[in-house]
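TL;DR need structure tokens for one chain.
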Amino acid sequence: GLRAAHRYLSDPHRYAPMVDNALAELWGKPPYPPRTMVEVQRLFDDDIVEIDSMFYAPAKKVSAWKASRAA
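>> reply
TL;DR here they are.
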């Protein structure tokens, strides 16, 4: 699942509530993952927000028998 989200906004005072509402719709109810909001002077293509996220996907366990058969 989602482990962290870093949000970069060109105008946090204006867009932070909109971004928070959108992420709350995606994640549902709290507790939310750790997140950071950073104000930047400008984003690529004059975007208003950029979100960088980290996810964790556990490795699928393979039995020793299956691993030896695959080799």
